[in-house]
Amino acid sequence: MQNTRSLAPTFGAEVSDYTISSTTSNEENTAIKALWAKHKLLLFRNQNLDEETLVSFSRVFGDLEIHVRTEYLSSAFPEVLYVSNMKNNGKKMGILADTEVGWHYDQIYLPRPAVGSLLMAHTLPPTGGNTEFADMTTAYSELPEEVKQQLEGARAVQSYEAFNSAYSVPTSKEQKQRSPDIAHPIVRTHPVTGEKALYLCPGMTTEIVGWEAADSRAMLDYLFEWTVQPRYVYSHSWQPGDALLWDNACTMHRRDPFDQNHDRLMKRTTILPPEALAVPV
Fold first, then answer.
1. Mind listing the domains of the chain with CATH numbers?
2. Alpha helix stretches (DSSP H) within the chain
3. DSSP reduced 3-state for 104
4. Of 18, 151, 170, 204, which is most buried, counting CB atoms within 10 Å of its CB?
5. Average pLDDT for the chain
6. CA distance 160 to 104
7. Closest CA to 97 of 69, 75, 136
8. Beta-carbon neighbour count of residue 54 at 10 Å?
9. What is the pLDDT of residue 171?
10. Strands (DSSP E) along 85-237, which ranges?
């Protein structure tokens, strides 16, 4: 078993002295999967990954999604999405530039949402661009019982268009067709661990299905405030060579802005759940 150091009281761990490789053994893969299930967020320091290795290691955890924003994918490995403010021949290389990016779950707007993401730091600004993560399992478990009862069986609308309007650039007609609004359970049962977590986020969750508008808004605002209390949040200050693997079924995240005069390039893969467990319940 790899040595670990806790990142936050309730979740997250740094995996010590581990080099990500495209040729890991079955024993190593089993150990890392167990750590990921336990800690929800894994940090690997001092990595030097090419895109082939990034993709190969990510596949240890499941099938990989080809992101809807095809204009920001690697030409050699389309499983890799560029998150960047940089330009190539005057054209934007990646999504989410250099402004703040609000709290969200990756691909919560899809019928088969991502169960994980791996983000590798390639080029970093001297300051800014920290990424925060919220432990939505603990946030759910500590909710008042009366609130849990209200949320039993409730579903909420998730909108990628709402997220793009607030934090990114508009989607094309084809991209909109691939990502229409969708309703998922507000309380999600994890497809691997079976734990329950709040499955909603300020960036994409717009309303609770079947609730009066005022009641829906009041509950969502309450939950959004509840989930980002300091005791549920870990803030990551990036270093060169950092790779972060997070559980996208039970953690949401956001990013601080950074100086637009400095380049930042991150490379991300998106991990899908097993086919039999694809739809959130």
1. 4-273 (3.60.130.10)
2. 26-39, 51-58, 136-141, 145-151, 160-167, 173-178, 213-227
3. strand
4. 204
5. 93
6. 10
7. 69
8. 25
9. 61
10. 87-88, 91-92, 95-96, 101-104, 116-123, 131-135, 155-158, 182-185, 187-189, 196-198, 205-208, 233-236
